[in-house]
AMP deaminase (Hibiscus sabdariffa), 780 residues
Amino acid sequence: MDTYTVHLAMAALVGASLVAVSAYYMHRKTLSQLLEFAKTVEREREDISEGESLQHSMKRRGQLSRRKGNGYYRRGSASLPDVTVISGVIDGEEKRNGPIHVDGIPAGLPRLHTLHEGKSGGRGTPVKRSASLIRPTTPKSPSASAFESIEGSDDEDDIIDNSKLDDTYLHTNGNAGPNLPDRSNANGEAIQIAASSMIRTHSISGDLHGVQPDPIAADILRKEPEHENFARLKISPSEVPSPDEVEVYVVLQECLEMRKRYVFKEAVAPWEKEVISDPSTPKPNPNPFFYASEGKSDKFNLHLMLNVDKEFLAQKSAPHRDFYNVRKVDTHVHHSACMNQKHLLRFIKSKLRKEPDEVVIFRDGTYLTLKEVFESLDLTGYDLNVDLLDVHADKSTFHRFDKFNLKYNPCGQSRLREIFLKQDNLIQGRFLGEVTKQVFSDLAASKYQMAEYRISIYGRKQSEWDQMASWIVNNELYSENVVWLIQIPRLYNVYKEMGIVTSFQNILDNIFIPLFEVTVDPDSHPQLHVFLKQIVGLDLVDDESKPERRPTKHMPTPDQWTNVFNPAFSYYAYYCYANLYTLNKLRESKGMTTIKFRPHSGEAGDIDHLATTFLTAHNIAHGINLRKSPVLQYLYYLAQIGLAMSPLSNNSLFLDYHRNPFPMFFLRGLNVSLSTDDPLQIHLTKEPLVEEYSVAASVWKLSSCDLCEIARNSVYQSGFSHALKSHWIGTEYYKRGPAGNNIHRTNVPHIRLEFRDRIWREEMQLVYLGKAIIPEEVDK
Ligand SMILES: [Zn+2]
């Protein structure tokens, strides 16, 4: 390995030396010819300056050029001849071609020495130079155009813009005319030199076309035809190259070939892409910052163009079934916000009326009844309204996850949250249990709406699991329309600060040890055992936009993680995933239900959250940041990872509704579903999930077919049992493409699913170079 590196280094060294040698050869060859050429130019210039009336300035110019020239000629080490010295007014294209192909310099033309003097030289851009040659018929002198070319090329073709042209001359020719205001020019020297007679008349009038050329300019004009017989530089070697030289040329060839291979080139050249038939100046873009989404998902739109009628017809012919009675699962909703605000208000009022003397809370050393709590807040049941409840997200919550979290407090009071929205309070969460049951019965009444409620386990102590399980069991919280997910708030730093935990491992232990215990021996936690049958997923929640320390290879292990900082998202995700993976293997081996990893990811924050969950998660909530990473978006598409998206929630927190990528993802065929996230804070109606669909359908013009496809996706993504899925979307739902569809259940036409399936297979074959092996069944 080492010798190989040394060889490589030696090869590079030899190559570099060869290039240097070849450059030297080339240099020496051209040197004599250039010298000759330069002398000719010098002679010609002397001739002109003698005939001029303004000898002073011209001589000065001559001196300058000589001085420069001498300096250059003495510099033997210069690797390439500086031809700009000689061809000060060569037009741009020639200049770009380098020193070898030099022509187009009018022989009698005074040299424009501003080019050699720092800033002014830099301003002479090639484009302007060629522009000056485009108009050979303009009466102005070539020298004037050369000056003009230094600045203001944008106005070259728009002579009407006199003010700008004036400016141009003022910059290059400070003392141009007596009736012009004295303006400063950064390039003082250039002004002095440019104080020649050449363009003064132009400057005064400001109109290039109206001027009468003065004698000197006319003299130059008369010489213009000499463009044609200008001395051309011929430097191609006449002698046969020596073997050494041939060797050098071969190395140079290789260098050029290497460059060809390495340097970026467009696959289709601009001139092949665009044929220009209009010779006039290209029109400026009147609105350069206008955004129009790029031609996205053309295949889907093409499919719609061809088949939308057939799809609609197929839906019409599916008896009984329509959007209202296809099953749709709210794939992402937090339990403590699962009721809408009106529902919570009604519940609080009824409790205040029916159970005013129930002791509900222990505060400041005393037990308080519900009535006393409201008295302490100076509130009566009659005062309460939705506005006073103030749990709804508003403008103040946008990009403020902290303020959004505060909205969980009814009337801004944490004690009301504790009484009504917590399950581990003085009344053992009885009120929350009751309101949950009401929500369950609403769901059951709707029959076709299901929900997966996410409920928190914090990892502060191991008994949390048993508390929650007993709350579920004692309140008989069970519904055919509901399954549960456990959400773990990423709050290590908070517990660490409070002294509840010493290391990150404590949290992992508190979360996973009870689960392993109950899996190994169900008798150890019987209530938890029955509750776990209803738990289908594990979630990670918190504000993803919080700054976090980027994960590195060398991070402390969880038991070494004793510092005060919160681990990064990926750290949480990995350890939850890894422990859950082991747990699931164990549960599977015992014939128990498994728990899928379904975290919040890509709602905000770094893109690496989505990379992490791509590798670890069954499906995710949100994923709106996939819009920022085409590669990850494509990967999520290919893997058909479910996205439980909540555009109304995003609209309250992180992303305006009209910017939400949901419609784009849907068109592209990502596995997307609609979910409510937090009905308490976000939705206004009794059916928050239908509200979510309704707004999406209106804003994004989703058809009935689209809505039914999204509803079908939601069942796919959900953790409901195989039996229920079979019943809801068809007995062969697990098969890919149209084979897995039953339009009588889903109201999704086969045409739509066949289209999705074909496009997806094409993409898979593309990525696997035609060798993709695609199983007939979807991923488990
Ligand atoms: Zn959420």
